[in-house]
Amino acid sequence: MCIVRAASRTIIALCCLVAPLAPPASAEAAWVLWLGTGTTYTPFGAYGGATGEKDCKEAAAQLMTDMKKDAKQLGEFLRSSSRYLCLPDTVDPRGPKSK
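Above: the chain's sequence. Below: its structure in token form.
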């Protein structure tokens, strides 16, 4: 039972990490849900785009809720130090593209 409670607290903490690091953008702008491990980020395919920040964060929360159903998947996610990150489509956490 303690393991389940600890996992629930961890999931809640991870959901809080979804908050954007960029300045607020228009609610009408497109947003991208990124999956990050350490300093490496890739667009997350299943929920790659959203019509606003709220939709993006809801998609990330749904992914975490779905992950709670699979203890193995959740454990792997937590051990990998992965996190979901919602950013406006004008912000790329991978940094500038090289020419």
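The radius of gyration is 14 Å.
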